[in-house]
Amino acid sequence: MSDKKRVSRQRMEEQNPNVRIHNFKEVPLGFTEEQAIIEADRCLQCAKPLCVEGCPVFIDIPEFIKHIKEKNFREAIDTIKNFNILPAICGRVCPQEVQCEGKCVLGKRWEPIAIGALERFVADWERNNMIKSCPECMPPNSIKVAVIGCGPASITCAADLAKYGYDVTIFEAFHTGGGVLVYGIPEFRLPKAIVADEINTLTEMGVKIHYNAIIGKIYSIQDLRDMGFKAFFIGVGAGLPMFLKVPGLKLIGVLSANEFLTRANLMKAYSFPEYDTPINVGKIVTVIGGGNVALDSARTALRLGANKVIIVYRRSEKEMPARQEEYHHAKEEGIEFQFLTNPVRFIGDENDNVIQMECIRMELGEPDESGRRRPIPIENTEFIINTNTVIIAVGTRANPVLTKSTSDLKLNKWGYIETDEDGRTNIEDIFAGGDIVTGSATVISAMGAGRKAAIEINKYLQNKK
Amino acid sequence: MDLETPQIAKKAHAGNFIIIRINEKGERIPLTIADYDSILGTITIVFQVVGKTTTLLSHLNEGDDILDVAGPLGNAIHIKKYENPVVVIGGGIGIAPAYPQAKELKEAGNKILTIIGARTKKLLFWKDKMASVSEELVICTDDGSEGIKGVVTEPLRKIITEKKVSLVIAIGPLLMMKYVVLTTNGSSGLPKIDTMVSLNPIMIDGTGMCGGCRYLTNTGEVYFACVDGPDVDGHTVDFDNLIKRSMRYKEQEMKSIEHYEHECKAIEKLNKNKN
Question: What is the fold, at CATH topology level, of the domain defined by B2-73?
């Protein structure tokens, strides 16, 4: 034990903040092999590992770390993949500090094991050496299952169903797969080549993907039943961006984070005019919100040439739901934070272009339903921020396109699909998971839901035989 | 232009639109479905060349492919038999999406009074098609080169003064729709008439995800043209704001076209040098 504490937590090398704010390349560069082995050696190999409890998909973390320590990278990645088919993605985007690493015993006195960075290391090792194994599938049983959406929940569900031998077809609304992983999370945080690689693995497993296919429009669930599909997984994600109900929302230069990020990420507006989709970034950009989406928008705006980027968040630093590493990176990059601040109105010029935002200071009151202390405006503390672009990142509502066309599907009062713990809806052959059930959450929790639903779909179809 | 998309053709109704992306680097743009044939498996789109995507679209030859086509999106219009006639107005390129609305409403037993207008005779199209579904067809041009000299609101004013009308449908430039609504909102001494307008704002996904197509009502409610429309109650729309919002990427559009023309010239030069 005394030896262990002397070695401190390994840090990934990162792109220098002054350099990276001018490019879209990934920020942390990943562990070297040497670093990974040193870090793995710090692990106490607890008999009752708390880290596993902290993982939404219960990866056998001590086991894969042990393999890394012994340089058995193949075994390490295979161990992870038994639980999680997207390790290169989760290693990068999971909020480890509140999950596995948050529970690590070492963290109580020293620093927790860098579980996320180790997960990323073995996943990258496999991909970079082009020795990625295609998961083994049971013999095809020719039973058709439709998976709607192609984000983390759907990808996991489709992969598991393919392993069970089902004939799986994914229906995706966009022209490319990955959902939030491609339209939402920026390249500098999750390279799109990694997502494309995972989608490629799916097709190697025999999963068919129909792009540009909006279920509820081009086909209804009933149409799909008529086409021979026997069960359905709905993983269409959250949808409609929420806008603040404050005056001036109509102004030009006020837009949703979904629009801003989709233009930048999915449509590659950062390469305009080589790519056709344009994007407007003012000299001063204000982002409203405190989650990962807000930080992603702010850091994207900086890379697209904004001189100054300000994040306005109504609670304090402590309540920010964003991933710690992203907050740390954003601060390094020079993003300004106005905590305990909320916009009151947006002010435009004679052409309806936004030029200013009036804000009010907040204080924290009693905890609300979310358990976080409720922000309350402090009277007579209004002040003005000059701004040319306002990006609103305060969450999303349920997308009604599919649920509207499936009128007998039970929804909750916010329009999300009601399911039991295992993803069963009120309709026998329909299962659901991810943000369309829970509202905006994490990639890993969506994957967990996709996995549970796959188990239930398998049970349902086996019982029907 | 006809696109072969059997499944979309099967599902399409008046009011629906598609989103296309022409190539790997292309933009996603919405286009209203102007006609559809479920037997042939085709849909018809009519577009005006304004930006790079529509320029590229106009250069396609018969048999060429478009990389991505998604649809039918948006809500189909509500079809029912109205007590009194329905006035359908198509302005400029808006004549095309007005046609299926007139057609479906006629098939439901309605009497259709149609007004189509354009700047000049050369820009008018589908006169026969429109006539075939209309009880009356009034044509007007700004320069008087065909039909009445003047804008569509003049014949509209005449119709609603003389006849009882249940519904007005107006599809065309935002400015035209604004003036139609001003004619039918009861403020000009004429009766107030339900008026549906078709919005065609800037969109990316077309499924409610980006919010780029949002429009505000006079009372400040936020709606999305893609999932709440595209056909909406004209009396609630803040047209002046929509007009300004529709111009928000004008500068980049010009840049995109310039970039494209520059590329074309470079390729031409390269080919010449080769020869």
Answer: Elongation Factor Tu (Ef-tu); domain 3 (2.40.30)
